[in-house]
Design goal:
Oligomer: single chain
Strand order of the largest sheet: 5-4-3-2-1-9-8-7-6
Structural class: alpha/beta
Strand content: 5-15%
CATH superfamily: Aldolase class I
Distance between the termini: 29 Å
Number of strands: 9
CATH architecture: Alpha-Beta Barrel
């Protein structure tokens, strides 16, 4: 199923999509496959798999720690592609990645191999449209969605230029600085979404540190997708063992999915 099909379905249902994030290879390659399937079984409409990177400047402590665990175990890009292949076909699978590992792999080669694994598209937090010519060409050739980010600091001109090259959805990074679960959702997120809607008909997904169903319902009241990362990763960090972590992950995902299906407007 494509992102376009997924958002058409969730819009028809009158709800927001739930997009869950997990670093590839955390806790291990096989365990991350199990965890992603748990997330899908429990209500995720799409999945972001993080490509572990040694200098994750935008990631909060939970995601940084998970990426360090994966890298220390020897997880590399080829392993993440294997994870994509193992979970693809049920919901759209995206990779969220800093751009350096893609350049190292080769933009065309990565796009080819990612598409062959069943991937749907990339979320590229540190890539700007002006420097994305190779990616724009390769993504078009391999029918991959391009998800760029807008932020509260983005000017109207920057938002328009960004959404012009997006496909799938637009990622509204509504908190400046590093990611992470928070007690309260961002006060600037609704305004950022409103500004972005003025220049695009694409769905808009919001990442604001959501950690429970009540917050998911709040975000679902103004966005097309609720994006959750750190809270999901923390379930696996905090469990006594993998089984306990997976149970916590399932409970959290179910709660988030329920919240996303009951938007507070």
């Amino acid at each position: 199923m494509s992102l376009a099909q997924t958002f058409a379905r969730t819009r028809a249902d009158g709800r927001a999509a739930l997009v869950g994030y997990l670093p590839g290879g955390f806790p291990t390659v096989e365990d991350s496959i199990t965890a992603i399937n748990t997330m899908i079984d429990s209500g995720c409409d799409a999945i972001e798999i993080g490509l572990p990177y040694s200098d994750p400047v935008m990631d909060g402590p939970a995601i940084q720690r998970a990426a360090e665990t994966a890298l220390a175990a020897g997880v590399r890009t080829a392993d993440v592609l294997r994870i994509v292949e193992a979970v693809a076909g049920r919901v759209p699978i995206l990779i969220m990645t800093y751009w350096n590992p893609i350049e190292k792999y080769g933009v065309e080669a990565f796009s080819r191999d990612f598409a062959a694994a069943g991937g749907a598209g990339l979320i590229t937090p540190d890539l700007i449209p002006e420097e994305a010519d190779d990616w724009l060409t390769a993504s078009a050739e391999h029918d991959l969605d391009r998800v760029f980010l807008v932020a509260p600091s983005s000017t109207a001109e920057r938002i328009a230029a960004t959404v012009a090259v997006c496909s799938g959805f637009v990622y509204a990074q509504s908190v400046m600085g590093v990611t992470g679960a928070r007690d309260h959702t961002s006060a600037v997120a609704p305004a950022l979404v409103e500004r972005t809607r003025k220049v695009t008909d694409l769905p808009i997904g919001v990442g604001v540190g959501v950690r429970n169903g009540e917050q998911a319902a709040e975000v679902a009241g103004y966005a097309d997708a609720v994006i959750v990362g750190s809270a999901m990763v923390s379930c696996l960090h905090n469990g006594e063992d993998l089984a306990a972590g997976l149970r916590a992950l399932s409970r959290l995902t179910t709660d988030l999915a329920d919240g996303a299906s009951k938007p507070r407007r």
